[in-house]
Amino acid sequence: MKCVPIEHLLRELAPQVLGAMMRRFRDFAAAEDAVQEALLAAALQWPQQGLPDNPRGWLIQVAGRRMMDYLRSEEARRRRETEIALQPGLLAPAVGGAVEAEQDDTLTLIFMCCHPSLTTSSAIALTLRAVAGLTTAEIAHAFLVPEVTMAQRISRAKQTIKASGVPFELPTVQERAERLRAVLHVLYLIFNEGYASSAGPKLQRVELAQEAIRLARCVHASLPDDAEVAGLLALMLLTDARRAARTGPDEELIPLTKQDRSLWDQSEISEGVALLTAALSKGSVGAYQLQAAIAAVHDEAARAEDTDWPQILALYELLKRMSDNPMVILNHAIAAAMVQGPRQGLELLNGLDTDARMAAQHRLDAVRAHLLEMAGDREAAITHYRIAAEKTTSLPERNYLMTQAARLSESAQSK
Amino acid sequence: MKYILMMAGTKAGVNAYRAWSPSDIQAHFAFLTRLNRDLHESGEFVANEPLGAPEQAKIVRAGKDGVPVTDGVFPEAKEFLLGYWIVDVESPERAYEIAARLSAGPGPGGVPLNMPIEVRQILSPRASDLA
Q1: At which of A85, A112, A138 does a domain end?
Q2: Where are the domains of chain B?
Q3: Contact residues on chain B for A397, CB-CB shorter than 8 A
């Protein structure tokens, strides 16, 4: 038996088993540990002994046994320490029916792991472990920190959830929209972390982008009528489609206009476009759908010069009305430059000079440099590429920006 | 975001440290141990390495055919890296806070040393999409 399919099966089953444990025992931190132990046991035993007839049942049984062991030792510890009996309620009867829809468990867990009381990095780590079924070591590798540090982060996150007293159930209808936004943001960040990665030992790297897509599929399966969920999934697919073309042989960044478009994944593009089309027809257009629509316009251009920039500009106009995110204004300025000329784009950037959110950001300088270059102002472009290179906190971006500045000054000298 | 916190000093400073009383040295060790324990508990610890004595430092350059040529006599006033911490934190302010705590480590008589700690962000291997 190959280990890869087992790994996938385990990740698929992880939230279902955890959901079953939560309905029986309620204690999130302990249930999560018990499920991890069951997953580890399965990862060791199944490749040797073959798949059990009912893998999900097997995991629930093993995790349940671990949970009972834990509760017994807790009970003994409590008795030793305080001589009081086990708290009533710890072994409460199952909440709700026995085998409800597993998808709803996954959704409930995602809502729980993306709880507003957690920092974003904690929510990401906890979602990857409790919902995506990754091991602590895999998550630690993905974020380039020691395993003990990641273990500590996850355990603190679980304690925070426990202390917040959030019940294992879906948020109320009033809360739902806001909590769903937090969930989608966490999934978006996980995707970006994976998509943007160009370093780290490839063999050990968990494909975070793939995990994010898988989780977004789960949420979409549970909430098929939510257009923004579909929009985020479409955005991920339409962006991920370009992954193979995004970096060169030395991991150097290749901008969209210079990518080899034959490397783009056409099946991801058509799936993304189909999802997006269905979502847009539902009538409530949100920011993820608009971003997906922009990605789709890029993906559908056979050559960079075929890109429908007026369409992209119109989509950014809509996006700008929805959000005051300075990144949207930046991208809007680029689209305006492509349609109305670089001077128009540069004009739009001026408004950002006093925006405090952009002060430490390299991106404003990077875009300004790009538009200045388009406008033929080479000296100023070099200056801003260099300022951007100084400010960026990303190594591939710094290399890219320095190369742009070097290319321009070389061509200046050769004239 | 990851930051490296670098502690530097001179040979003279290291010699002065060697002349501390045992209880002052002990107090300083206890301080460092506590700091590392706290960083582990907060889930921010990435690495901490103390470095060997400056007397053993060598500057290496490639000579002919890439053969290493070492140089090892340094003036008293030269600054040496003594050790570093790498932390993974939510904000630059948090990195500065940890650096300030490190800087205030106890010296002779428990008086804070207020050593300068150089804080530098570690570049991420990730890039967001370029427009």
Answers
A1: A85
A2: 2-121
A3: 127-128, 130
Better pLDDT: A205 or B19: B19
pLDDT for A359-374, tens place per residue?
Answer: 888 999 999 999 999 9
Domain range for A189 = 103-165+176-197+207-223
Contact A362, A392 (CB under 8 A): yes
Q: Work out the minimum CA distance from A106 to partner chain B, whole angstroms.
A: 26
Q: Which fold has domain B2-121?
A: Alpha-Beta Plaits (3.30.70)
What is the identity of the amino acid at A322? M
Q: Determine the residue among A121, A124, A145 to mutate to test chain B binding: the one whose Cβ has the most chain B Cβ atoms within 10 Å.
A: A145
Does pTM surpass 0.90?
A: no
What is the b/e burial string over B9-38, where b = at least 16 CB atoms within 10 angstroms of the residue's CB? bbbebeeebeeeeeebeebbeebeeebeee
C-beta atoms of B127 and A146 within 8 A? no
Angle at CA of residue A246, ends A245 and A250, nearest 5°: 95
CA distance A82 to A73: 14
3-state SS of A293-307 is HHHHHHHCCCCHHHC
Q: Mutate which of B37, B41, B130 to test chain A, going by most A C-beta atoms within 10 A? A: B130
Closest residue in chain A to residue B121, using alpha carbons only = A393
ipTM score of the complex?
A: 0.81
